[in-house]
Amino acid sequence: MHAPRVIFHMDMDAFYASVEQRDRPEWQGKPVIVGAPPDRRGVVCAASYEARKFGVRSAMPSVTAGRLCPDGIFVRPRMDAYRDESRAIMSLVKTFAGELVQQVSVDEAYLEVTDRVPPGEPDAMLEAALPIAREIKATIKAQRQLTATIGIAPNKLLAKIASSNFKPDGLTLIKDSEKTAFLRPLPVGAIHGVGKVTEQGLLKLGLKTVADLQDYPGDLRSAVGSWGNELRRMAFGDDDRPLDLGDDIKSVSAENTFLKDTAHRPTLRSCLHEQAEDIATRLRKRRLAARTIQVKVRYSDFTTLTRQVSVDDPIDDERLIYRFACWLLARHELVKRPLRLIGVGVSGLAEVTVRQMELPFEVKARS
Ligand SMILES: [Mg+2]
Question: Is residue 240 part of a domain?
């Protein structure tokens, strides 16, 4: 039995779009879509909640977004502004949690506040942290005019589930004594690190919900390999991962140099394909996803160019990485001459997003 902990997961709501709406008050309450204009080849990087109501999602082609939401306000991304905002928010958050802040992406962080509440029973400590979370939300609102969602729980796994399911402007607490019951109705994909591959392995055993995992009498290692034991612990809401305060990996990349310079499209495409697959595999192994996708090309004269695109919802799917890479090549007309080297890289890494899910029962969200 580990000493009880109090962990927050803080996630800004529709971050890029909210920054735009704050800076242009006339856009408040309107469908704002950050990304390429709807008459261009390009993608949506982020959508305000008003735009999401029309079905607009990040990583969707802008043309589709324009069709779904003809009155949408399309805005070019201002990455510098989002990065500045991120720095301001994170330094604000540190006034509440000191150095115990693990920033996992531009708008998302874990905070450990265990030492900021009186020691006691796990549930009592969690309850005692509610005012701290309220104050963080209020301070962000007052000083940055943006809303944050916070999940409070005894560990990272549950804190992230708590924040992911009750947005925007949410404040949700999962008690230690209720964690097993809380998780039961959720799909297996709600567990940190369960991606499509693992999900398929579990489905073969008929395991669809976390309840199925909890009740499974066999050895989960037969379905998911060495990770089985950890997965079972997580299914019961146990997770003792500490905050990662050290240097995380910052990027993952793959590249190929050709024996002979080439502009042959099928060759380049199959290269990108393999690279995207390689990157996706490495991301999934670390249960990470990426917000920024970059291509790199080098020409015969050794000129090297890189071009990148960022999306709001991190991706770990090889097809999407591949699609973005192809789009970048076309968009910037990078293959006008034969290439000596081609490569794909991803950065802006974040933990795999817990998929939004409908809960089949009411959970008390306090605020
Ligand atoms: Mg967010």
Answer: no
